[in-house]
Amino acid sequence: MPDRVLLTIGTKKGLFVAESPTARRRFALRGPxxxxxxxxxxxxxxxxxxxxxxxxxxxxxxxxxLISTDRGKSxxxxxxxxxxxxxxxxxxxxxxxxxxxxxxxDLWCGVEPASLFRSADGGDSWEMVPGISNHxxxxxxxxxxGGLCMHTIVRDGDRVHLGISTGGHYLxxxxxxxxxxSNKGIxxxxxxxxxxxxxxxxxxxxxxxxxxxxxxxxxxxGWPDRPGIxxxxxxxxxxSWRSIAKGLPSDFGFPILVHPDDPDTVYVMPLExxxxxxxxxAPAVWRSENGGDSWTRLAKGLxxxxxxxxxxxxxxxxxxxxxxxxxxxxxxxxxxMGREGGEKWECLFDALPPIxxxxxxxx
Length: 363
Description:
Blueprint: E1 4-11, E2 14-21, E3 28-33, E4 42-45, E5 51-58, E6 62-68, E7 76-77, E8 94-100, E9 107-112, E10 115-119, E11 127-128, H1 130-133, E12 149-156, E13 159-165, E14 168-172, E15 180-181, E16 202-208, E17 211-219, E18 231-234, E19 242-243, E20 252-259, E21 262-271, E22 285-288, E23 296-298, E24 316-318, E25 326-329, E26 335-338, H2 339-342, E27 344-349, E28 355-362
Antiparallel strand pairs: 1-2, 1-28, 2-3, 4-5, 5-6, 6-7, 8-9, 9-10, 10-11, 12-13, 13-14, 14-15, 16-17, 17-18, 18-19, 20-21, 21-22, 22-23, 24-25, 25-26, 26-27
């Protein structure tokens, strides 16, 4: 029976792992692993025991994938990392997403520049997925402020949803062989066409396994002349989208999460569009319990003023304990936990390097 909570914390200066019993009274911190190298993606894979994967991408020494088989006490490199063919013309810059595939050793990986790779052997070898990596749109995508990144991979049987900044939302219904831009209702505030076929700056996509037709998107909002395009919902497997941003202090943000027990409960972290910081210097997570029809501010225990941090797209997660807790990491190095689904917040660690990625698993 699962009895431990594992947090993987990807930072600007390496990977940290925090562990606690499921009561979550105190977390023991380990690391940094891959010290000095930024970590943007982690995965705790429980299909064959507990394996932790992490990206480790260094512009000088190359791109690596780290793996631990002892719950994050030690790490080693896999035999290889994703790489473009020699005649492709593109070079790997970063690894943004790692998710499990169908088989016990099957892994999917989204990278920068935006492309998709798969491994059939637990990360020791990789093959590029041509249906999206060589899509007719691929050479037309442009980098956002964080780069040209494939940051989200959401799998649902033969359906595969991809989030690309800036490319938009792409949908496969044949297991990843072919992909179609599926952005009806997803706006863009930085191009003349308010609803282009592709090229939107999608920040994150989330879904719940019990409601696979419904998806939520945190898009690049914060545009005064195009309000409401930042937080969206789809009820038809991502083929069309509608705004659910009404009631939020800002529709700009990066992460979006769904409660593990309730597809109607969704969380966002609004930020000011121009500065990418907490509105008014007062951070808060906002929760909807009716699929985005209304929102409630969750800030008990968080700073009330003079806090100007950013929470990046993969720096917020929620565990699957009996009473789930939320976690988010900041660009100023604090890791926060919100007990009772975000009702009560406390700072677990307050002096880590800038945090890019926070993932949690109950093992």
